[in-house]
Amino acid sequence: MGENAMDKAKGKAKEMAGKATGNERMKSEGKVDQAKSDARKAADKTRDKAEGLRDSMRDDK
Length: 61
What we know:
87% of the residues lie in helices and 0% in strands. It contains two helices and no strands. 8% of the residues are buried.
């Protein structure tokens, strides 16, 4: 399991624990942790696409 997936799982667990205990702060922190994980995943995907584009534009012949 990748780092982003672990962070997302931790965020989901924190959100569920907050719901179960009625702790709105913990619930919100869990949602924020999940959003951060999603943002990192999107940034990684964008970086990978940019690197692929850069590599395809090189003239290594």
